[in-house]
Amino acid sequence: MPSTTSKIVSLPQLLQLLTWWRNNGEEIVFTNGCFDLLHLGHVDYLERASQMGTKLIIGLNSDESVRRLKGLSRPLLDEYARARLLAALECVAAVTIFTEDTPLELIKAVLPDVLAKGNDYTVEEVAGSKEVMEAGGRVELVPLVKGYSTSRIVQKIKEGS
User: Fold this and answer.
1) Cβ distance 74 to 52 under 8 Å?
2) pLDDT of the residue at 47
3) Cα 107 to Cα 30, 60, 103, 112, 136, distances in angstroms
């Protein structure tokens, strides 16, 4: 079993892993997100996504990217902490951090067999869906656990409930 930190890879390292995995018949699943304050909804989502193939790769928004998307008070946990928590999950094969607002360029580099996203999106809204499908892959929308979101947890903490 790889160590937690060995699962956190740069894009060049990820591309090498992809070559190895594909040469060994692995089916690559990719998903992405901020994964700030890891919770049950995240874990359930990632476990479901991982079952759609044999290797789950997570594209993790960098701290700067999260701030641009969610505001200056976020992320709650820095990118290294978020990457370590994700990498500790058995269902995760690799985590790579991206700095852009969307993972489109990363998805174009990875071209996974399966692009997974929560069912709070439509296939058309998923960044990289067109590129993945044109390359012969598929897009899967994963059912989310109701009532779990980082924003909701933060709100509960602020309210003291």
Assistant:
1) no
2) 98
3) 8, 12, 6, 7, 13
